[in-house]
Amino acid sequence: EPERAVLYWYDPMVPDKRFDKPGKSPFMDMELVPRYADDVQEDGGVIVSARQQQNLGVRTTRAEMRELTDRTTGYGTVVLNERGLHTLVAPSGGIVEKLTVNALQQQVKKGETLATLWNPTWAAAQREYLAVRQLGDDTLTQSARQRLALLFMPEAIIRQVERSGKPQDRIAITAPENGYVNKLEVRQGMQLSPAQPLFELASLNPVWVDVDYPEAQAAQLKIGSDISATSRAWPDKTFHGKVSELLPILDSTTRTLKARVVLDNPQQQLKPGMYLTVQLSHTQALPRLAIPQEALLVSGSQNRVLLSDGSGHFTPRNVTTGASLGDWVEIMDGLKEGDSVVTSGQFLIDSEASLRSALPQFAADASTPPTTSATPDAPVGYQTQGVIKAINGNQVTIEHEAVPALNWSPMTMDFTLPLSGLPQGVGIG
Questions:
Q1: Counting beta carbons within 10 angstroms of the beta carbon of residue 190, is it exposed (0 to 12), middle (13 to 18) or buried (19 or more)?
Q2: For helices 138-150 and 120-135, what crossing angle results, to 10°?
Q3: For the chain, how big is the Rg over CA atoms in Å?
Q4: Inter-residue contact 104 to 182 (CB < 8 Å)
Q5: How far is CA 195 from CA 1, 153, 190, 199, in A?
Q6: How far apart, in whole angstroms, are the C-alpha atoms of residue 333 and residue 321?
Q7: Residue 309 — pLDDT band, cuts 50, 70, 90?
């Protein structure tokens, strides 16, 4: 076979150090390994045989357009739907003759009578009106009827007086919808004035959820974004709603804003004060080029992937990432739809001794690889302190301190003795 051209020699344990001659490694007790010119691809990639790929567990997937929704997990508190509150007031003065609902948070149904009011002033005015009607004078009748309206008498009560011919001095206060009593401001026997508040009714469908989110997401969250929520009280049920408002005031203590969410609660399982785990959707689901998160090789200054051409050739590629969307990450630049990227084994490829020097390093430009001036004939020396633990033939075991120049941490390891052996007087301990 023709002789293969050697680019340099290197120690597989320290692959970023390169030597121009073969020989012993100055770092470890092993021979330097040659790097042949035909192992390095012009595009900076490497070739990995099918057997090596199998040993490394290499798997690939294709970059694809996916409809991804950026979702964030947050926490919210169920609060009253203030737009569903109904305040019931006394239509006129009088006395609370009967109180059917007399406790806070009591459930009521639509049309249910909450209280009965008696107004003796109404009785006198209605009798006068009935007497004027019998005179047949339309002008007097109309004036008497207007007096009833000035006493805050509802039109329905006036018509009932006209139909029955009898005074109607009692009025029933009924619930306009299903709900519960949130405020109770009246007691039986109490004397009332016109427009005095009696009850405040609240509804549990829908409910509001106040969700805290960091100010860094203020530009991402939109009104109308979908939300799903779960509660520990109902672990198997998911509640759905939408963001209705983004409240303007920032909490100076937690540095969070609040989103008001309207959540459907048809069975009234959610109660005010409950804590919910919510999934907030920041943006609409739009097709984006994405790859699995595990395909990224992340460093402090750049992100890379390994491209595969399907025949064992792998090429590093810088990419610009967008939003992280669950197990997938958006790729803004560097890839196109259909590109095959390595999702498993890429870290092993990067660290394998036979491939490491061909892949660009994260901390330096591979186009100008450093060349160690030391050669096996003139090795570089490093100093540290240690304790001899054992001597076995031409091997000595030393428990030594760190060697910062080699990025070694404190360890215990074997070293090969020189031909002259240990200096006189040096031994275990």
A1: middle
A2: 170
A3: 42
A4: yes
A5: 107, 12, 14, 12
A6: 7
A7: confident
Whole-number Å distance between alpha carbons of 174 and 226: 36
Is residue 363 within 8 Å of residue 300, measured between CB atoms? no
Residue pair 62/267 in contact (Cβ under 8 Å)? The answer is no
Residue found under tokens 């008498």 = 153
Tokens of 65: 């357009």
Q: Which residue has the tokens 């958006």?
A: 330
Burial environment of residue 248 by CB neighbours within 10 A (0 to 12, 13 to 18, 19 or more):
exposed
Query: Alpha-carbon distance 373 to 356, whole Å?
Result: 20
- 45 near 316, Cβ under 8 Å? yes
- For 388, residues 6+ apart whose C-beta sits below 8 A from its C-beta are 396, 397, 398, 426, 427, 428, 429
Distance, CA of 343 to CA of 244 (rounded, Å)? 40
* Residue 151, pLDDT score: 79
**Using CA atoms, how far apart are residues 17 and 114, in angstroms rounded to an integer?**
88
Residue 181 region by backbone torsions, left for phi larger than 0, else alpha for psi between -120 and 50, else beta: beta
pLDDT at residue 140 tops 80? yes
The whole-angstrom distance between residue 208's C-alpha and the CA centroid of its chain comes to 20
> Does the predicted model carry a pTM greater than 0.85?
no
**Residue 209, pLDDT score:** 93
Q: What sign has the CA pseudo-torsion 288, 294, 299, 305?
A: negative
Q: Locate tokens 């926490």: which residue? A: 75
Q: Name the amino acid, one letter, at 140.
A: L
158's tokens: 């006036």
- Residue 416 CB: number of other CB atoms within 10 A? 10
Which token pair is 128?
A: 């006068």
> CB-based contacts of 89: which residues, under 8 Å, 6+ apart?
195, 196, 197, 198
Residue 365: per-residue pLDDT: 41
DSSP character for 52? H
How many other β-carbons are positioned within 10 Å of the β-carbon of residue 105?
10
pLDDT tens digit string along 310-329? 888 888 888 998 877 668 88
CB-based contact 57:348 (threshold 8 Å): yes
- On whether the CB atoms of residues 114 and 180 are closer than 8 A, the answer is no
